[in-house]
Amino acid sequence: MNNAALPTPILPTRTDARAVLRAEWLALFAAWKQPVWRVDQVLQWLYQQRVEQWDQMTNLPLALRRQLAETHTLRNLQQAACQGSRDTTQKFLWRLADDALVESVLIPANPALYGDASDRHTLCVSTQVGCAYGCKFCASGLEGFRRNLTADEIVEQVLAIERQPKAAGEAPLADSRVIQNLVIMGMGEPLANYDHLMRALRILNAPWGGGIGARKITLSTSGLVPQIRRLADEPEQFRLAISLHGATDEVRDRIMPVNRKYPLAELTRACEYYRDKKGRMLTLEYILIAGVNDHLDNATALAGLGRRLQAKINLIPYNRVEGLAWDRPSETAQEKFLGVLERHQVPAFLRREKGHDIDAACGQLRLRTERELRTQPGTVGSGAS
Ligand code: SAH
Ligand code: SF4
After folding, report:
1. For the chain, which has fewer Cβ within 10 Å, the N-terminal or C-terminal residue?
2. Which CATH number does 78-374 carry?
3. Domain spanning 16-73 has what CATH number?
4. Quick one: residue 275, left, alpha or beta (phi over 0 = left, psi -120 to 50 = alpha)?
5. 103 is catalytic
6. Beta strands at 15-16 and 72-73: parallel, antiparallel or unpaired
7. Cβ(243) to ligand 1 under 6 A?
8. Is the pTM of this model over 0.85?
């Protein structure tokens, strides 16, 4: 038999190191006859030093580094573009190994209005390339769904930002933590990528990993009922935000196709289940869209739902999306809508900042970049700040 007749060996796809839990490292290192403290060295390199290559793990024996490199990848996100300044909201566009693009948005805890450096940040991360749920107002859904992100691609969004010297306004210290809060509100429907997301969140939450407290992590969903119930049964106290945007089936059916599968009555029952299991950890997000959901009757219905769920309500004036006809109501109309919620004594918050380009919702930078790429290949990154 000559060599040409041999079947091509199928190499197992290697797991990325940032998708591995400590317990899994321990099992692997035990099988390799490596002591436990070697695992902690690897974890320190990955999550404290945030190294990008195995060779940077200088206190590991060369043979072990080689073994790790043969069995695991270290896929680093490549920055394709960046918008905004270090002390205000900053948007990062990442290129993944298969050339797909996703976004993360870094938001200072106290928007530094007068140019003061802010060292406490919230990071908004993406969980999918595109989104299959097709909400009528959203840039992420416009180009359809491409794929789920893997756990390491979610974790790397945090590590890549913490590696950035400019994120904190100075060179990062080895043990500095730039990100205190995480919101899973970027591109994609997080609960449609449940297993990868939970693995990533466990790594980001662990003291040996990202060290971000569970109560500082908020997941946002358009209303996937079975997964909301599943999340309620998990041990972690993650916060949950529901993208409601309509307090009646009539409004939600019109703008969010997911409502036909999981209508409001079912969604409300799942939210009650979450609230009962976790305590008051629910937020209802409500984008104000002129002429669609901003009538004062809509506010009364929303107040009723808010009271029933003992939820906090976030009103967000709609950010315009290129190619869509929707717009936000006037400031007076926004305040009137808020007034109705306040009269019903529902805790409500209206985002009053002006609609800066950079504040625009996730999905828009990617959409613009992909459209530019289609017309002028090679332009991505040229506009990076
Ligand atoms: N798929 C999840 C999480 C990502 S979207 C979800 O829908 O909850 C994050 C939030 O941004 C959602 O509340 C979404 O409705 C909102 N959003 C989408 N497009 C927007 C826009 N143009 N202006 C303001 N908020 C928008
Ligand atoms: Fe998807 Fe959320 Fe956008 Fe709806 S709002 S299309 S679920 S990303």
Report:
1. N
2. 3.20.20.70
3. 1.10.150.530
4. alpha
5. yes
6. parallel
7. yes
8. yes
pLDDT 10s digits, 93-134? 999 999 999 999 998 876 544 444 556 788 999 999 999 999
For residues 146 and 187, what is the distance between their CA atoms, to the nearest angstrom? 11
Residue 307: Cβ within 10 Å count: 13
Write out the two tokens for 350: 């209206």
Q: What string of DSSP letters covers 118-130? A: ---EEEE---EEE
Contacts of 188 by beta carbon, 8 Å cutoff, 6+ apart: 126, 127, 128, 129, 130, 131, 140, 148, 149
Residue 50's Cβ-count burial label (10 Å; 0-12, 13-18, 19+) is buried
Instruction: Give mean pLDDT, residues 318-340.
Output: 94
Relative to beta strand 312-317, strand 282-288 is parallel
Phi and psi at residue 345, in whole multiples of 5°? 55, 40
Residue 362 falls in the annotated catalytic set = yes
The reply to whether 78-374 shares the fold of 16-73 is: no
**Ligand 1 atom nearest to CA at 188:** 1
Ligand 1 lined by 283 (C-beta under 6 Å)? no
User: DSSP labels for 257-306?
Assistant: THHHHS-HHHHHHHHHHHHHHHSS-EEEEEEE-TTTT-SHHHHHHHHHHH
Per-residue pLDDT, averaged over 313-332, amounts to 93
